[in-house]
Each structure stands twice: as structure tokens, then as C-alpha cells.
Sequence to fold (366 residues):
Amino acid sequence: MQLPDFPWDSLAGAAARARAHPGGIVDLSVGTPVDPTPAVIQTALRAAADAPGYPQTWGTPALRETVARWFARRRGVPDVDPDGVLPTIGSKELVAWLPTLLELGAGDVVVHPEIAYPTYDVGARIAGATPVAADGTAQLGPAMTGGRVRLLWVNSPSNPTGRVLGLEHLAKVVGWARSRGVVVASDECYAELGWDGQEVPSILDPRVSGGSHEGLLAVYSLSKQSNLAGYRAAFVAGDRDLVGRLLAIRKHAGMIVPWPVQQAMIAALDDDAHVAEQRSRYAWRRTALLEALRGAGFAVDDSRAGLYLWATRDEPAHTTVDSLAEKGILVAPGSFYGPAGVRHVRVALTATDERVAAAVERLALA
Ligand SMILES: Cc1ncc(COP(=O)(O)O)c(C=O)c1O
Fold:
């Protein structure tokens, strides 16, 4: 199997230079949360520490009902069927295994955004299918792919660009996919992080889905909204039959979310206060970095939601990465996310207030 090199390995030189800065590195290259896991979730995990028996692959009914309630309360989706919900061990594994779980293989095409989280491509390769990067369905002529499109990924808000797809765009994608029997998987893990009033519709929103979840899967993660990346807590929801197919294989394969984590997920999804608190931390960091980047001659494109600023000085990404590394600031080159990203860098908001303040100070120096 031909897998790409793990892109972060190529940042080792820039990382070493950034670490050598007398004020220490400000690492804005990865989107890993740095703030504490909220107490309400830690308490629920501890209370569930006694777990001698095997947990249910499908998740407890209480967890699946909690997810359905969460969709109604937070995502404007009133009609999620708890039977169409399945917890996953973080969402990265689901992204990587979905084409395999849907039994895709040689001759099948998986479409993902042109500038994208690399795991969509990797997942297609693991299944032996063909990944194709395309933002518009118009780009998908049969001559271009030579195969049959079976799965289409959307990612809104996008990692890395922070672009948000509106209702009309999503509805069009759903219409196109349904008329061809293509499954739409929507990775929505930054959904709680819309900025400046930006609305972030779900693929399951009735204005998008037309009130039926047929052929649709929404993928969500608690890693970002709840500082829970270390727990591996996520879920997929939507079409009951599709979820049933995933469940059947995952049961055989032992792909089970530990019971204490399932209990912690219930506590996290039932508590909106910690999400608001975390949002306000990121809002401060975003404003500070946005102003500092603009002051340093960057244009920031898209970046309407999520945990990244998609910035450019209209030069090759590696030039920007190197010059920021001299200031002790490490960012990710846009080229990690596809050829269309070669003149951008991705600046993550996931550093402490103290480290973000250090970056702001350094960006202000010529
Ligand atoms: C777009 C996107 N999808 C999925 C993930 C995976 O998140 P997790 O596996 O922590 O749920 C990430 C993590 O950065 C991401 O950016």
C-alpha cells in the first residue's frame, strides 16, 4: 500500500530552529488542545472507573440518546435517530477506516476537498480505493476518475482553511450524491467554533437533508470542543442502515469506545458551559493572532470558523515557515494539505495565552 510520508516529520528542521529561540518555541503547528479537560468530564470519567465487563460497540442507549439530544440542541437537527448513532475511538480512525467499513475497494473513488486533512486520502488508500481531490462536483467527470464515486467527504468548517459551507452548497452536494447513490460523509469536528456569528450548518440539518438522513453521515469529535483529544471520544450519526453496516464490522473487529469514555462523553455533551468557556479562550487567541499576522504583512483567507488561521504572505509556504521559525514560531506549511495550499501556512490557535502573547510580541518585531 502506498501511504504518504507522515508530513510532520519534514518539519523537524524548522522545529529545531524554533526551539533554539531564547524565548522558547511557540508551537502553532498542530491542532492539539492545551487547556485542561473540564472538571465535569474528569469527574464522570473517574466515577466510571470500575468497568470489568466489555462495553457495547454501539454505545450505551443513554449515550446514543444524549447524542441525538445534542444534535437537536446544538446543531439544529431535531430528528437524529439514536439507532443511527455510533461512538468512535476519536474521529481520525473513522475517517481512516470509513471506506474500508463501507467495503470500498479497487475501482471505487473517494472524493475529498482539494485542500484537506490528509486522512481522507489515506482512508481511501487503506481500502484500495482511489482518492480524488475536488471541491466541486463539476470536476468529477467520469473521464477524470475512470472509476465510480462511492463516497464524498465534506469538511466544514475546514481544516486547514476555516472555510464554512453554507446551506445551499451542502444541499446541492446532497442532491448530487443521492441521485448517484454516493454516500456523503461530513466531518464537522470544528462545528462549535464559528467566529463573528458564523453559522455552521450540519449535513443532517433538515434544510440540507430535506428531512431524510438517507446516504448521509455526520462525523463529530469531542477532542476540540471539550479538550478531550486524549480520551479518543467521537461519534458518527445519520443514515441508520449505513451506521448499521459500520456497526456490524466494528463489532467483529473490536472497535469499541471504552465504557468510562462513553460515560465521560455523556457528561461532555450534556454540559454547554465548558464549551462556551473554551470558545472564549480561542476567540481571544484568534483575535490576537489575526491582528498580529495582519500587522506582519500576512493576508488571512477564509478562517471563518475552527482552530486555524489560513495565512499567506504570497510566497512559498516553506519560506514563510522558515522565517517564522527564526522568530521561534512553528506553523504548518499549507502544502501538507494539498498542492493548492503551497502559498499558505496554517496557524493553530491551540497554544496557551502566554505562548500566544509571545508570538504576538515576536510578530510585531521587524
Ligand atoms: C478535520 C479533522 N477531522 C478529524 C480530526 C481527528 O480528530 P480526533 O481523532 O481527535 O477526533 C481532526 C483532528 O485534527 C481534524 O482536523
Observations:
- The mean pLDDT is 96.
- The CA atoms of residues 239 and 351 lie 37 Å apart.
